[in-house]
């Protein structure tokens, strides 16, 4: 058993007591991957400095922290932020602007919040075509309308040519959390069922194809979409929904590892419950990338009580997620680990991502 | 059309009827200056696409829009965002992290809000020293503590070496607006008095000096600071404060032009009421830059009713702005213009900034 495996088997107290080591003196691409290096950077740099009650309880598929709940003046608010640096800025199925809106909407939805207001901060590279900027801004408006949110504030900075790559967007959002919703890893119980809202790995592979530096081409479209409507339907059908997470950077494997780590329970995935479209799987195979680690931008995992699982599934099927599946369950052992049960009945451990096979996909 | 909408439309009819032309096909550094080109970009690209009731009434020294008021669930919330790309990332008197906290705190304070919660999105260049990141993150925490706000969510992205310049930070913030406060250009009346909270041009010149590419050196420190405490004191002393604006990008000249444009009144500045520290003025003189156009990061303008001006000034003097001055007044003519009355009794028009003499100062 190597050190990593040993760590995975630690219970939650010991995991918290012994954070991931930060071995690097300089930032590497792996620190942006959503995997182990990201977690180490967050723990050592950001949590150490910012640590407060709200942030310490946070967890996101993203990095530093996440949407978290704030009770203020009788209203439960959730707030979230995400930066977008995807390359290229336009790809089949979407662009950086749509991604920036949907991503923050989804982060809020994953906190059980109803997204209301967004802000957008732009860093533009000198020389960017105004027509490109207009296209991106227009699709942000469209995405916001579709998600039912308003963009109420923004900022633009321009840096000299070469000091940024075309365009970066950081969105932040505020949502309101209905008082009867409590989602979080601490709500998760043994026997709970895990639901996956749709096929995985489309976004990451669509962006890879769009870069055009691969020898293969395939018409794969990003799954970028706002999921707040589906989440509302889910809560109506399964009011005791325990935990929600969109499987962005690091993919399903990474968010399941975060869940296993936070609960000190086992996340047991069923291979047959995890759909991958044929073209996407073929592209992953050719590149030697496991689709479980590829980013999604409109696909999420939900943990629900077993007796509400069918209702949850039915609700998702009729609210925009026709391909939602039951993809696993929560067990006691192996503690703090993720295992995948294959179609042949075999099992394999699914570890956290190390390094970043697909940089700049969001 | 309700009364508010009517009023806003009246005030800016002349401006809106003839928006600034957007002549460029590509983004230039001038579009990030906070001046005329910025305003044109905002009007043609962002307002066209995002335009909604909240955003349309917005105005900020920054660009796209600003902190604006949202009534939701009985609470008046203000929300704001700002991106920071300052070069170098550390300079006398502060660093990019401190700037990012203070800037968003100040944007909220300028909307009459009490800042509460902040988010921070980081874009990191591969190769950035982790020790540098730790220093910046630590000073963000310190700045947040000093301003009385909590950093509750964040995100980190890493881009390959050369795709960004070291580190960009976008902060967003939420504040609560006490129900008895209404600030905005539409509140401004002829005869109102303009107060300036301190000496100007320190931030921009400090950053210029820190770049080390000038033949001159001077120990000038940035004025970066959170002003929310001063603003609270101001509202206590002058509850009918009409309008507030921190004189960031584009400096005092630009925000005064925005005020003149939004009110269709004259902003009459008195040269003797505008303090510039000796070293800062000398540096401006050598570089041929008018301090009125240089960015500040902890200095603001307030328009107050004439009969509350002395109380406002006294309150500022004892709440962290000992050098606050009365620097001008609101007149009817010349409409929609800014004039500066010099010590010799002469006057000159102060136009909006064209181009950007000091790129990447925030």
TrEMBL record, chains A, B:
Any Pfam family the entry gives: AIRS_C
Annotated signal sequence range: none
SUPFAM superfamilies: PurM C-terminal domain-like (SSF56042), PurM N-terminal domain-like (SSF55326)
Domain annotation PurM-like C-terminal: ranges: 189-339
Domain PurM-like N-terminal: 66-177
UniProt GO BP: protein maturation
Domain of life from the UniProt record: Bacteria
Family stated for the protein in its record: Belongs to the HypE family.
Protein name: Hydrogenase
Lineage: Bacteria, Bacillati, Actinomycetota, Actinomycetes, Mycobacteriales
């Amino acid at each position: 058993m190597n050190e990593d495996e040993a760590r995975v088997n630690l219970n939650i107290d010991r995991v918290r007591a012994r954070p991931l080591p930060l071995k690097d003196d300089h930032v590497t691409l792996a620190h942006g991957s959503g995997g182990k290096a990201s977690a180490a950077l967050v723990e050592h740099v950001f949590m150490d400095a910012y640590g407060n009650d709200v942030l310490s309880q946070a967890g996101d598929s993203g990095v530093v922290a996440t949407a978290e709940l704030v009770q203020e003046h009788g209203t439960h608010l959730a707030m979230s932020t995400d930066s977008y640096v995807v390359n290229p800025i336009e790809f089949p199925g979407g662009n950086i602007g749509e991604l920036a809106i949907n991503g923050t909407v989804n982060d809020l939805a994953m906190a059980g919040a109803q997204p209301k207001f967004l802000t957008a901060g732009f860093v533009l590279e000198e020389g960017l075509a105004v027509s490109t900027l207009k296209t991106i801004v227009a699709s942000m408006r469209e995405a916001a309308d579709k998600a039912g949110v308003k963009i109420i504030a923004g900022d633009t900075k321009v840096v000299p040519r070469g000091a940024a790559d075309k365009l970066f967007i950081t969105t932040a959002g505020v949502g309101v959390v209905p008082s009867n919703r409590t989602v979080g890893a601490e709500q998760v119980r043994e026997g709970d069922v895990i639901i996956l809202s749709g096929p995985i790995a489309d976004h990451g592979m669509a962006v890879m194809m769009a870069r055009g530096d691969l020898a293969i081409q395939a018409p794969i479209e990003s799954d970028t979409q706002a999921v707040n409507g589906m989440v509302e339907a889910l809560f109506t059908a399964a009011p005791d929904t325990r935990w929600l997470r969109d499987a962005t950077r690091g993919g399903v494997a990474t968010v399941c590892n975060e869940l296993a780590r936070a609960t000190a329970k086992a996340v047991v995935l069923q291979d047959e419950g995890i759909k991958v479209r044929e073209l996407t799987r073929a592209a992953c195979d050719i590149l030697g990338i496991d689709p479980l680690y590829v980013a999604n931008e409109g696909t999420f995992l939900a943990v629900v009580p077993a007796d509400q699982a069918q209702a949850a599934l039915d609700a998702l099927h009729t609210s925009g997620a026709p391909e939602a599946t039951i993809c696993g369950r929560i067990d006691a052992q192996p503690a703090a680990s993720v295992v995948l049960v294959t179609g042949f009945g075999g099992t394999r451990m699914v570890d956290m991502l190390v390094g970043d096979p697909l940089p700049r996909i969001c």
